[in-house]
User: What shape does this take?
Amino acid sequence: MTMTLAPPLRGVKQQPTRPKLMSFSLPTDSSNDSNQNDSDSSSDSSSDSEPETIFGGERVEEYEDYWKAISMVRLLKKSCKALGVAKVKDQGRSPWADHYGHFAGIAYGTDDETGLKETCDDLDGNLPAYKDEFGEPEGEFDVITKDNAEDFGLPADEFGDDEDPIYVPVEYDAPEEVWYAEEGEEVDDDAVTGTLEGVSGVGEARAEEALELLKKAGMKVVWA
Assistant: This one.
């Protein structure tokens, strides 16, 4: 993703290596051997057992999607604030507000659709416990934290000291404009030539020539 305002991977837990038995040992009586063997057996059993977790190391699709949606909600909430966009009131006027509304709907639901929060409420565990167990969601992400927020155009002071990282899928396309073009607003030159070049048989040179002719005629291209 490229933002103009813009995982260590999970490691595999290694079992501790058990020390080799010594080839030399002092002789002991059989009763001590029996007690020692019982003690060793108990110790080995304890060391071999993995600590129990809520999810048993198995990822849950609903929690994965909820985690990612929440990350996008947090990203877009901070982005809207930095851009001076009202994340709810400006929906329909700003693509940033519309993106916020889209991911908030996925996370929390809408009048017509159940959100992932409600879905996960019916599952074992909760999102904080899921985060603790897996560390980060599955996939490829730009990871935004307080330390690198300004590299993505976001103010660092909008992040708490202990705030969770924001995971932004690398394929996410952030809006290029803060506001949608208003009806009657003049279209910039690049948009005019780009549109003309999309017409069959009109290349870059002819598009630029057409733009110059429009300007010479004193005409403007506006959004309808």
User: Anything to note?
Assistant: The longest strand covers residues 141-144. Helices lie at 30-48, 61-83, 95-108, 116-121, 127-134, 189-197, 204-216. Confidence is low (pLDDT under 50) at residues 6-34. Residues 181-224 form one domain.
